[in-house]
Every structure is written in C-alpha cells, then in structure tokens.
Amino acid sequence: TLLYTIKFEMMMFALVALIPLGFLPSPTAACNCKLEAAELTIKIALYDRKCLQKGFKSSIGCVSEEGKLSRREQRKCLKIEDKLEDCNHTCPVDGGWTEYTEWTECSASCGGGIQSRTRSCDNPPPAFGGAPCAGDAECSASCGGGIQSRTRSCDNPPPAFGGAPCAGDAIDTQQCNTDPCPVDGGWSSFGEWSECSNDCGGGQEVRERTCTNPTPANGGAQCEGESGESRECYETSGCGQNGMQICFLESEGSSQCQGARDTCSGLSSNPAWTLGFRDDTDSRGGGCKYQWSIKQFTPTIKRDYRVCFRETEGSSQCQDSRNSCSGWSSDPAWTLGFRDDTDNRGGGCNYSWLVEERENQNRNSPQVCRVCFRETEGSSQCQGNRDSCSGWSDGGLTQVFRDDTDSRSGGCNYSWKLECKDSP
After folding, report:
1. pLDDT per residue as tens digits for the range 166-180
2. Distances (CA, A) of 88 to 26, 36, 269
3. What pLDDT, on a 0 to 100 scale, did the predictor assign at position 281?
4. Where are the alpha helices (DSSP H) in 51-141?
5. Residue 43: φ, ψ to 5°
6. Rounded-to-integer distance, Cα 286 and Cα 364, Å
7. Neighbouring residues of 389: CB distance < 8 A, sequence distance ≥ 6
8. Could you tell me where the DSSP H helices lie in 19-70?
9. Are the C-beta atoms of 368 and 296 separated by less than 8 Å?
C-alpha cells in the first residue's frame, strides 16, 4: 500500500508539471463535480494537450491553438469539457479596462487645479489567475497640461470570509506634460496692392502679409514662404500728355496745296482732328506731295488705337468713303477708300485725320505704332510712293506721294491703316 501511494503521488507531480501556467483547477468545485482533485488535475492537463493544442474551440473561455480535430476527437473533447464545466473549471481571464468616465469638475475655481477621470479593471475583471490590467495610463495630453492616472487592485489578498475591503482610493492621479504646446505660425491675408512705383511708365506694385495668424510661440515653426509679392504695373497719371498723335505734312508748296499743310491731331487720350488741308484742283499741274507720321508721347498698356480720315468739303470731285476709320490696332485693317477725282473742277477736297484709343484688358505691354498709306487706283496722276508706312512712333514720315492734278480725270483712291506692336 505504501509503495502504491508513493507511485500515485509521483504521477500527480508529473501531471501538474505539464499544466500551463495559470491553467489550474478551480479551488472550489461544484456539488455536481464527480472528479477528485487529483482526477480534475489530470483532466485539465489532458484537455490542454489533446484538445486545445489541436484546435478544439473551447466554450469555457480557454484559448485554442490552430489545428483541426476529427469528429471522434471532437466528441472526446466535448465530454472532457462537460466534466470540467461540472467542476466549475474556467480558464484564466486577463483583466481589461473600461472606458474612462467624464472629467470631474476642476478642483479650483481660479488658478491651477486638477480634473480627473477614472476607469476600472473590470471589463472583464481578472479571474482564475488571469493578469491584472497593465500599469499606469498615458498622459491625456502631449503638452499644455494633462492627467495621468494609475490604479491598484484590492487582491493582495482579496477580502474573504467577511474581511474588510481595502482602505483608500483605487486610483491615483497627477498632472503631466504641463509645458505649453508649440504654436506654428500662420500667414495673414495679403494686404492691398501698393501704388505703382512709377507714375509715368512701367514700375512695380507690392503687397505684404504677416506671420500672425497665429504668431509662432513656444518653439513653434515660422511661416513658410515669402511675406510679400510683386507684380508689374504701368502708370500714366504723372506723364502729362499721353497716348499718340498722327501728323500730316505737305511739302510741295504749289498754289493748289492750301490750308494747314503741316499739322498733328490731338492725342488719342483726348482725340481731335488735324487742321484741314485742301487739294484745290483747278487745272494747275504739279500736284501736292503728301506724307504722314505717328508721334507717341507715352506708350500705354491695355489700349488699342486706330486712325480716322474725313473729307468735309463736299464738292463733286470728292467721292466714295469720305469719313471712315481703320481697324483697331489689335486687328489692323485699312480705312475705306476715298477718291480725289481731278477733272478741271475747282474747289478741291478738304482733308483731316485723327487717332482714337479704347481699352483692351488683354494688352499687357506698351505699344509702338505706325501709320500706313496706300493708293490703289493706278492712274498716271497718282505718282511717287503709293504704298508706304511711317516709322514706329518716332515721328518718321511715310514716303512721299504726289497727287498731280493737271486736267486728267479719274483721280487717286486713298486709304490709311494703323499698325502697332509691343514696345521693345
């Protein structure tokens, strides 16, 4: 009998050594448990080795490993599990935290104080040798002041058999990370554009912004990028006269060339016709020598220009389009044709010219312009340079054209055009 007892005790010691840490039988067994303590220990070890380690899905809270059991093995494991359940055996349960409660009111009505919030290690509570909830909570804020808490459990030992619960609080709190938070700088909106740096011609406008939305603080980063920006501008308010003029010159000097033989129009910003010039064709040979030019005082941006012609006498020898304008400089085109028909009729034609401008928001560069003249009839009395242009806004004249009125009918057919380009 003694030898049998010693062998049984040695066998029990070996079985207990095989049971995983924390996987121990319940200290108290239910009334319907049919296993002795030694038998319960053996069943627990068998349940772990033959069932849980081979993939059996536990219904009493035990963790299973990967694997697959046959139907026969499944049935055996279910029987073992039923016996363990009758004995109130449950696998170890690690403790879990609940959600935090709401923050308490501040402990002080002014100055510094403390707010706290708590959580409990009962979601679930640790049981059957399971691990308690892990240590202290992290600080509730990374800077600017937060709360850190820690807990303790009344299980060293737990109160039992009418013993008193632990005295004092289960949770301890403290302030943490009280340094002010860094504040990165942010740009304000840009201010208004400044006045142009030049009141006559090209210049620069600038506008600024500040790194104050918010201002960097507590080691926060400065604003990235430039605090100001600029753009080109063009101003004429300080120029006095602006725009351009068309000028006419007659240089022959015969008696049939009468009136204003050297005249300029008003500036395009305030248009006015040249003074009138009369070609009086009363059977006198020689004719009149015509030339035109463009004078530009201030090239301006966002403007288009055109040249206009008119004849105001009204005699029968002044024919066709006696009042017309060229195309705008953004789309150049000739004026309509005008005919001076010199067939022994006295009186002649009275000519004048004008330059106009209009706004063009797409024109971003100052312009230089020139006037062009052409005569398209081809009769013998239309002589000289019958198709030429002036210089570019420099006062340079077109080539000379002569209307030689010596009793030959038919006359000359005139038209004009204005061309412009970006200023160099």
Report:
1. 998 888 888 888 889
2. 7, 13, 106
3. 64
4. 71-86
5. -65, -40
6. 47
7. 370, 371, 372, 373, 398, 419
8. 37-50
9. yes
Q: What is the dihedral of CA 236, 237, 239, 245, to 10 degrees?
A: 60
Task: Evaluate if residue 345 carries a pLDDT over 80.
Answer: no
What SS3 string covers 211-278? CCCCCCECCCCCCCCCCEEEEEEEECCCCCCCEEEEEEEECCCCCCEEECCEEECCCCCCCCCCCCEE
Six-digit token string for 6: 């010693």
Residue 99 CB: number of other CB atoms within 10 A? 8
pLDDT interval class at 283 (50, 70, 90):
low
Q: Token match 């990165």: residue?
A: 184
**pLDDT attached to residue 135:** 63
Q: CA of 34: how far to CAs of 41, 83, 86, in Å?
A: 13, 8, 8
Looking at residues 204-212, what average pLDDT do you find? 96
Q: Is the pLDDT of residue 361 over 60?
A: yes
Alpha carbon distance 329, 354 (integer Å): 14
Burial (Cβ within 10 Å: 0-12, 13-18, ≥19) of residue 68: exposed
pTM, entire model: 0.47
Q: What's the rounded Cα separation, in Å, for the pair 77 and 54?
A: 10
Matching residue, tokens 């340094």 = 179
Q: Give the residue with greater pLDDT, 1 vs 391.
A: 391
96: left (phi over 0), alpha (psi -120 to 50) or beta: beta
